[in-house]
Amino acid sequence: MAPRTPLPVTATPTPATPATATPATPTPVTATTARGLVREFDGRRVLDGLDLDIAPGEFVALLGVSGTGKSTLLRALAGLDRQVTGVIQGPENVAVAFQEPRLLPWRTVLANVALGLRTREPQTAARSALAEVGLTERAQAWPLTLSGGEAQRAALARALVREPGLLLLDEPFSALDALTRMTMHRLVLRLWQRHRPAVLLVTHDVDEALILADRVLVLADGRITFSAPVDVPRDPNRDQNRDRDHPALIELRHELLRQLGVSQEG
Amino acid sequence: MPRITDVPVLPPASTAPDQASEHPAPGPPATAPDRPQQPNQPQRPSRSQRPKRPKHPERHRGHAWARLISPVAVVLLWQLVSSAGLVSAQKLPPPLTVWRTAVSLVTTDSPAYGTLQGAMLVSLQRMAIGFAFGAVVAIGLALVAGLSRVGEDAVDPLMQILRTLPLFGLIPVFIVWFGIGELPKVILIALGAAIPLYLNTFAGIRGVDARLAEAGRALGLSRTEMIRHVILPGALPQALTGLRQSLGVAWLALVVAEQVNANAGLGFIISQATQFLRNDVILVALAVYAALGLITDALVRLLERRALAWRRGLLSQ
């Protein structure tokens, strides 16, 4: 990522430090580090000296009240914000899936997935990525003919086909209906298991964060104010989903809601 | 007279109906497509109208025949009024007379008018040269202005000044500068065509959905790839709307330009007929103008259907 970010980066790609035991994968094993990120909008500090670490292959969920700068942080990590100052180091390949699918409506689904792909056979890679998200039949379709869930899956395929070391998800499920969202949760977990990118999922849904992530963060006042591992086993028979009613999850949910300023007694 | 018929302007691609309903608040509010700015020309036959495309085209198709009823009724009434002698046949020749005149203008090479098809070819050629010239310049300038700030600062002010000039008010100046031959006619047509096309193409380029552009940057697209895959296709719908508008203005400019000392073409036929008080001949020539305008408009519609096939999913919903 470092070469793509226009930040004053003192970037030597960090040496591969496999902090967690990740299975052997083709993705480069580089941790993501952000130090002292500052971003102001009209004098208002949205990011205020933010520090963040994401281990290779780690699934991190970032929670925060609306307007706390979750998306700002994500855009900074994606190298899309030229006005952030601070130091960001991370994997070479960073991919983003946005809240809206943002497919180019005038290119077929397949062409969208293959867009900007620098591998030797982009079409083949794009086809297999579409197969992974179950969209083989819609490869030649126009994006406007897709349902919301299909479009979001195509966007996921477009992100994953780049074999990212860091996958940034900006509330990608928030616009989907509840059933489609559950299907998408499973799909994301399955894809994450297979490709093992580090994931930063920005969400405002506490349950979503608890089901999916290894670690949950809370962003407030421009910094990460809370960080806790989700020490609840995943169920390998349910695509690594978790049991929502696990006591430890319930306890963590209470704590997160408290951190987010939502009273339980109300 | 070429009419600018209903332009099927669709919502911007990023706000397809299905998405709009499923994304209650997708980031910045989806803005309406920039309405093509139009030059302030009171002479314009009709302003491009708001979209009136029916939600269910297939249901509309049955109406096609129904829409013929009122025009046919008007022509019948016209014939009846003329046959009954209620208006002078000199002032308003009945449809049958106009038709017979048209046939004789095609079949006989009269010394006063030449042939209708010959005149039509002359006018068509004028139009083609002027329009092609204007379109190439307009698209070139729109690209320069749309793709770079420096280009915008250099080109756009001039075009904005140009668009406020009354097109037909320039005729006397053009006669002084370019004489009364073909040149002022072609330049008038080119100018009329260039302005709506420039304004729409420029607005189309600048109106490309910023979120798509950001997605393109996130995918690591180069500047060239960005222009090719995101900006130009995104600008195309509005550029095509501009193309149809500019055709309308160009036909109008042709009609006016041909009134000025034409010694060939449809305008020549009209000025001859005026001297001979032959309103039937004038009506025939006007009908040819109208038909040519309709044909070119239909051609652009066809081009739109092919080039914008990706919007079909949106239309069929």
Could you give the topology of this structure?
The complex is a heterodimer of chains A (266) and B (317).
Chain A: E1 32-41, E2 44-54, E3 59-63, H1 70-77, E4 85-89, E5 94-97, H2 109-114, H3 122-132, H4 148-160, E6 166-170, H5 178-195, E7 198-202, H6 206-212, E8 215-220, E9 223-229, H7 247-259
Helix pairs in contact in A: 3-4, 4-5
Chain B: H1 17-22, H2 57-61, H3 63-83, H4 95-107, H5 116-147, H6 149-164, H7 171-178, H8 182-206, H9 210-218, H10 223-258, H11 266-275, H12 279-307, H13 312-315
Descriptive account of the structure:
- The complex is a heterodimer of chains A (266) and B (317).
- Chain A has a 6-stranded mixed sheet with strand order 5-6-7-3-8-9, with helices on both faces.
- Chain A has 7 helices and 9 strands; from the N terminus they run βββαββαααβαβαββα.
- Chain A is of the alpha/beta class.
- In chain A, helix 3 (122-132) packs across helix 4 (148-160) and helix 4 packs parallel to helix 5.
- Chain B has 317 residues and is mainly alpha-helical.
- Chain B has helices at residues 17-22, 57-61, 63-83, 95-107, 116-147, 149-164, 171-178, 182-206, 210-218, 223-258, 266-275, 279-307, 312-315.
- In chain B, helix 10 packs antiparallel against helix 12 (279-307).
- Chain B is globular.
- The interface between A and B is medium-sized, with 29 and 33 residues.
